[in-house]
Amino acid sequence: MPEATGARAVLRLRNITKRFGPLTANDAITFDLHEGEVIALLGENGAGKTTLMNILFGHYTADEGEIEVFGEPLPPGNPRAALEAGVGMVHQHFTLADNLSVLDNIVLGTVPLWRLRSGRGAARARIDQLSRDFGLSVHPDAKAGALSVGERQRVEILKALYRDARILILDEPTAVLTPQETDDLFATLRKAVALGLSVIFISHKMHEVLAISSRVLVLRHGSLIGEVVTAETDRHQLAHMMVGSEIVAPEVGGAAPGEVLLRLRDVSTLPVGNAVGLRSLSLDLRAGQITGLAGVSGNGQAALADLIAGEAMPETGDLEIAGAGIDTWSPRAALDARIGRIPEDRHRTGTISDFTLSENSVLEAYEKEPFSKRGWFDWAAVDKHTRAIIARYDVRCPGPDARIRLLSGGNMQKLILGRALEADPTIILAVQPVRGLDIGAVTYVQSRLIEARDAGAAVLLISEDLDEILTLADVIHVISEGRLSPAFTRGTKTPAELGVWMAGQGFEEAAGHAA
Amino acid sequence: MRLEPVADPGWTRTLGLPALALGGTVAIAMALALIAGSNPLAVLGLILKGAVGSKFALLETLNRATPLIFTGLAVAVAFRAKLWNIGAEAQLYMGALLAVVLGTGAVALPSVLLIPVLMAAAITGGALMLLGPAFLKTRLGVDEVVTTLLLNFVMILVVSMLLEGPMKDPMGMGWPKSERLVPDARLPRIVTGLRLHWGFGLALICAVLVWVMQTRTTLGYEIRAVGLNRRAAAFAGIPVTVVVIKTALISGGLAGLAGFSEVAGLKGSLTLDLSPGFGYTGIIVAMLALLNPLGVIVSALFVAGIFVGADSMSRAAGVPTYIADILLASALLLMVLAIMLTRFRVVRG
Lengths: 515, 349
Fold this sequence. Notes:
Radius of gyration of chain A: 25 Å
Strand order of the largest sheet of chain B: 1-2
Largest interface: A-B, 32 and 21 residues
CATH superfamily of the largest domain in chain A: P-loop containing nucleotide triphosphate hydrolases
Number of strands of chain A: 23
Oligomer: heterodimer
CATH architecture of the largest domain in chain A: 3-Layer(aba) Sandwich
Largest sheet of chain B: 2 strands, antiparallel
Number of helices of chain A: 18
CATH topology of the largest domain in chain A: Rossmann fold
Number of domains of chain A: 2
Helix content of chain B: over 70%
């Protein structure tokens, strides 16, 4: 077995097996984590990474197998046991209380509530020490709600360290970070392992896995497919292990941009709740071109998507479709303007889970012929339409009358894609269209978007995954705090340069030049 | 213990569990009869006999089921859109009130015209009664459970005031009741000589119409979409507010028809005991029917049978009629549990 020799195993998993009905989520998984190393757990969505970690943390009980931490067996099904044994987890979704300070968030749960106010001096000194040791700069008195995503993650890591975690588990930690913040995180992790901690880094991004880990464990369909030393492997081999077959990246040919189909001029919208509004944003979407919108989550992407999808009106400024202003604006008006929409949340916004595939396939057009005439449904026409989408978009399903909640994310997304594209849209709004999909489905959805572009559609691709934007987009804008960067043509900006804009610095510099 | 969703519940699960719930209800009834000091099987037999044991009993059950079909449909339609209409009682009284206002001589028309006019009035009255709460919900986000529930008490007091005042029958010997409907306004009996009026037929027709509306029309599709996922419905361009208002009008109208049917078919005049809680029992009827309009017919007959049967059993065996309320309550609770267990299984650990 290729592994660092001599180092002590701090965590041992032996034959961990977990079944959910007919599905085996983890199949006899065995591995060791050694002191002072970073191992990466690589796998597609649904490969079993999260289940494995939930077993380690006692949220699930394994059907078979055992876990040892620092040589002691870990009692199953007890969430406190892992914490007390020195395992800390940084979740994909942060678990901070917004109205408490950083200090309170970190201390919360380590002392009884009535003693929360005492011993703060010692706690503060300890947090300062940890911040310095690990390069995690955050202000202990800031309210958690006011922190950026990157800062919140640092607090989460501090929380684990404060509880004397010797093993850190990070679940998809970079999904919400700019490239620079990712580099900072990696620096922290390197300091941690230098101080003798051990890290499990869960990800599906290969270049990050290659950058930070010493060993890579690849999971596929619940099984441990293989273990490789990072220095001896490459992207290609990892991808092959992850998917089990060769991956064909979508072919992106040159674009032939045409006229402007959708234009936003100085559009501002009000913030909705915690979500950022748009600030005097101007944007052109051209026919035959994919416009990529990069940015850290929560910087106005939702406001822009709502606007184009017809769910919100500009507060000030103009929205023009094919050169003409709009009088009324609603989801139906957007559909009538031939905007095809792929929403961010396919479970809650894109589909109605308890509707059948048929009912979902006409959600945006049920009141039009041939699906209904004068208020009466023609279910035969709906069935025919659904079967056509199922066949043309390779939707794997029991049939048009199955409830859509039985479908996998990828197949659900293919149905949404088919529903949007079959209406022959001239403008396509795709928000995070491949998030959470397996690689096969990712390639499929992306190829279809490229085809639509080649057929003359104007595509707006909103994604938090910079790699996706860099691969697909012909022109790239960065959105930060509701402001839009200038358009960058494909290949003119590196990820690091875009990261400067994502962090909001580019805007100040541009403003400085203008002044 | 926790719940895990069942991906594809088979027929044994979807039919067997509700059957078990029904069996459990019967067991509870028998236990209660035993506690009351009677022979459980005899009590059960008496309930059954009282509900369907004779022509008279059967017709009584059908008569009792009639308003329950209307209110059950009213609740089923509204609940489909997640419009929680708890106010079918008030809507029923409003329908009855308008039918009596117009049907006691104010409008002189032949029967074939007068009955549709009164029906339209009752539908309008019930619909308007729910329109207010529906607007408050869609415009201001006011919880309709509270508004519709409280309007029930308001409406009862209004009717009470009217029956003690302007609408009091001068020939009523001091009782708080309205004048009687003119003969042309009365719903005829289905078979001459038998105490079953056309309100029952009307209720069956309404159930079929609601079923057709839900499964065949775009409005039914919109109502289901809004009820299942308001967010996705709005995103897809379904006018959610309009759909909720339309649903409220249909639901309130159906409950209003219950009031018309009771006045024109059975009682002949408006009294404060026109409805012994048909509006509330309609919720049980709709839930037992899983909100299915055709199922409402079956569950209304079941509920009516238990009430009528328990009345008759009580006279014969001396076991209190409260057994009917407990039976319905346990039937509802067990059925809700059974329905949950068809979709989820309980897993240890």
